[in-house]
């Protein structure tokens, strides 16, 4: 039996224009997760903020988007998937303009909260639309297109944000969304198909508990580094609220009726395994993105623009991988592609453990290309297989959970590598400094002036020690991510091989 929200037509009119419009909106939203980061220092003066308080520009957006993402399925059923998508584009574009016009930190935070609320539904709805308007045999190519926007957006965000800030003004980081949003809205309004609504009651208690868990977790992860983690009462309160919210929501999901996320969605083994995988991908993708720009700036003295150019080949590798895997997923077992992608990612991370302050940019570029190829090989088949055995009417809820888990993985990954970097830098610095002693004969060979106690020579030695300690700390982070990647590979055994493309309609009918 056909479900009200399922689209069954194989020949959707204007499929190409729909895809273009959807992807413009998706890239616009994904870019905003990283494009504003590099503009924060220049915002402080105009907004009357300090270095400590300006980070609320990022925190407010992340927390608001995280809270609203899980409710996308209910909103699309209640108000219409097409209508929600159009409203999200309009709201996101308008609030982007207001962010660019902000006159104080308070106004910026308020506008960023609304920007996050409106933008939360764009990514899961775009994934749902692309699955709906394409027949099953084209899902791999559709997910390749969608994945390219999701993964390349955060890579080019800091570069674009740095260029706009240096060339124009930090406000253009937000103003640039206006033309993109208008084009995306006009294309979506003209060509997106209307889908029948499905009225269902709103589970306010379940939503409140999940929002409490997600919001408190995101606050804890985003604020932890600033307040020295568990030495601050704030972090303990947020941890307690997060655990309470998730625990109560889980019990409510298992025992309640008419919950706003149907517990049946978690009976699909492919989808649940896909959630675990996308969590790992989130850790690797944005954690490495968070590490490389400061490494290139602090250790290699690269400008923002040069940093973007050095990291650009990573995005090129991802694009090439997406193009290839969109076709390969139709003829090669998706599980093999996932394992191969994780293998390439592990190889790239192993290469990154050999970085040193004396090298040129070639190892960074080569490892970036390999990592881009690997993550692309993982993302597309994973996005395809995770939804392959799921009934179509679960797609919007599933896509919102998919995006939520990826974002939580990214936040946790960034927090872990940041904490490790800070801690290991102190430990490594102490270990290396212990060898700088007038009683060490090697010091006299390297720098007789330093052994004699010359202040200038000792200062140079301190800079060398600090640089080496920092580099070793980055290498420790790369090793951790390599271990996480290798540990995730056996999970591919839990994925079920989806039905062949030719039998797609029959499989969907059976699922119903």
TrEMBL record:
<feature type="transmembrane region" description="Helical">
    <location>
        <begin position="12"/>
        <end position="31"/>
    </location>
</feature>
<feature type="transmembrane region" description="Helical">
    <location>
        <begin position="170"/>
        <end position="192"/>
    </location>
</feature>
<feature type="transmembrane region" description="Helical">
    <location>
        <begin position="305"/>
        <end position="325"/>
    </location>
</feature>
<dbReference type="GO" id="GO:0022857">
    <property type="term" value="F:transmembrane transporter activity"/>
</dbReference>
<feature type="transmembrane region" description="Helical">
    <location>
        <begin position="364"/>
        <end position="389"/>
    </location>
</feature>
<feature type="transmembrane region" description="Helical">
    <location>
        <begin position="204"/>
        <end position="221"/>
    </location>
</feature>
<feature type="domain" description="Major facilitator superfamily (MFS) profile">
    <location>
        <begin position="18"/>
        <end position="500"/>
    </location>
</feature>
<feature type="transmembrane region" description="Helical">
    <location>
        <begin position="51"/>
        <end position="72"/>
    </location>
</feature>
<dbReference type="InterPro" id="IPR011701">
    <property type="entry name" value="MFS"/>
</dbReference>
<feature type="transmembrane region" description="Helical">
    <location>
        <begin position="401"/>
        <end position="421"/>
    </location>
</feature>
<protein>
    <submittedName>
        <fullName>DHA2 family efflux MFS transporter permease subunit</fullName>
    </submittedName>
</protein>
<feature type="transmembrane region" description="Helical">
    <location>
        <begin position="332"/>
        <end position="352"/>
    </location>
</feature>
<dbReference type="InterPro" id="IPR020846">
    <property type="entry name" value="MFS_dom"/>
</dbReference>
<feature type="transmembrane region" description="Helical">
    <location>
        <begin position="478"/>
        <end position="495"/>
    </location>
</feature>
<comment type="similarity">
    <text>Belongs to the major facilitator superfamily. EmrB family.</text>
</comment>
<dbReference type="InterPro" id="IPR005829">
    <property type="entry name" value="Sugar_transporter_CS"/>
</dbReference>
<keyword id="KW-1003">Cell membrane</keyword>
<feature type="transmembrane region" description="Helical">
    <location>
        <begin position="109"/>
        <end position="131"/>
    </location>
</feature>
<keyword id="KW-1133">Transmembrane helix</keyword>
<keyword id="KW-0472">Membrane</keyword>
<keyword id="KW-0813">Transport</keyword>
<dbReference type="Pfam" id="PF07690">
    <property type="entry name" value="MFS_1"/>
</dbReference>
<feature type="transmembrane region" description="Helical">
    <location>
        <begin position="84"/>
        <end position="103"/>
    </location>
</feature>
<feature type="transmembrane region" description="Helical">
    <location>
        <begin position="143"/>
        <end position="164"/>
    </location>
</feature>
<dbReference type="InterPro" id="IPR036259">
    <property type="entry name" value="MFS_trans_sf"/>
</dbReference>
<dbReference type="InterPro" id="IPR004638">
    <property type="entry name" value="EmrB-like"/>
</dbReference>
<feature type="transmembrane region" description="Helical">
    <location>
        <begin position="233"/>
        <end position="254"/>
    </location>
</feature>
<dbReference type="GO" id="GO:0005886">
    <property type="term" value="C:plasma membrane"/>
</dbReference>
<feature type="transmembrane region" description="Helical">
    <location>
        <begin position="275"/>
        <end position="293"/>
    </location>
</feature>
<keyword id="KW-0812">Transmembrane</keyword>
């Amino acid at each position: 039996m056909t479900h009200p929200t399922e689209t069954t037509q194989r020949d959707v009119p204007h499929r190409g224009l729909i895809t273009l419009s959807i992807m413009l909106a998706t890239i616009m939203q994904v870019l905003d997760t990283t494009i504003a980061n590099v503009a924060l220092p220049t915002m402080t003066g105009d907004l009357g903020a300090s270095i400590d308080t300006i980070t609320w520009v990022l925190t407010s957006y992340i927390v608001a988007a995280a809270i609203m993402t899980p409710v996308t399925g209910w909103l699309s059923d209640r108000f219409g998937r097409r209508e929600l998508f159009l409203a999200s584009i309009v709201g996101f574009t308008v609030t982007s303009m207001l962010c660019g016009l902000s006159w104080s930190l308070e106004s910026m935070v308020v506008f960023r909260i609304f920007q996050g609320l409106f933008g939360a539904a764009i990514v899961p709805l775009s994934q749902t639309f692309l699955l709906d308007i394409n027949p099953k045999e084209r899902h791999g190519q559709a997910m390749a297109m969608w994945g390219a926007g999701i993964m390349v957006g955060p890579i080019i965000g800091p570069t674009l944000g740095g260029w706009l800030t240096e060339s124009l003004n930090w406000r253009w980081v937000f103003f640039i969304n206006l033309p993109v949003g208008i084009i995306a809205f006009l294309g979506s309004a003209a060509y997106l198909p209307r889908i029948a609504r499905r009225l269902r009651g709103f589970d306010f208690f379940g939503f409140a508990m999940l929002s409490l868990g997600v919001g408190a977790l995101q606050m804890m992860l985003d604020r932890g580094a600033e307040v020295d983690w568990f030495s601050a009462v704030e972090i303990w309160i947020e941890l307690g609220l997060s655990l309470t919210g998730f625990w109560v929501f889980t019990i409510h999901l298992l025992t309640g009726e008419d919950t706003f996320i149907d517990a049946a969605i978690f009976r699909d083994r492919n989808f649940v395994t896909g959630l675990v995988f996308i969590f790992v991908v989130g850790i690797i993708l944005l954690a490495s993105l968070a590490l490389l720009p400061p490494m290139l700036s602090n250790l290699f003295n690269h400008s923002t623009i040069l940093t973007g150019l050095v990291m650009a080949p990573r995005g090129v590798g991802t694009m090439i991988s997406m193009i290839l895997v969109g076709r390969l997923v139709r003829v090669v077992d998706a599980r093999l592609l996932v394992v191969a992608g994780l293998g390439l990612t592990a190889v790239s991370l192993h290469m990154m453990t050999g970085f040193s302050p004396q090298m040129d940019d070639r190892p960074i570029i080569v490892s970036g290309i390999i990592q881009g190829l690997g993550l692309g090989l993982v993302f597309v088949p994973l996005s395809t297989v995770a939804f392959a055995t799921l009934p179509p009417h679960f797609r919007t809820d599933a896509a919102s959970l998919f995006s939520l888990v990826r974002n939580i993985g990214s936040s946790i990954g960034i927090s872990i590598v940041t904490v490790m970097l800070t801690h290991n830098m102190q430990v490594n610095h102490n270990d290396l400094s212990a060898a700088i002693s007038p009683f060490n004969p090697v010091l006299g060979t390297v720098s007789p002036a330093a052994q004699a106690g010359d202040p200038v020579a000792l200062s140079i030695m301190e800079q060398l020690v600090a640089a080496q300690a920092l580099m070793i700390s980055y290498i420790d982070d790369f090793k951790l991510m390599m271990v996480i990647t290798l540990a995730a590979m056996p999970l591919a055994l839990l994925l079920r091989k989806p039905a062949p493309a030719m039998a797609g309609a029959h499989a969907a009918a059976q699922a119903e």
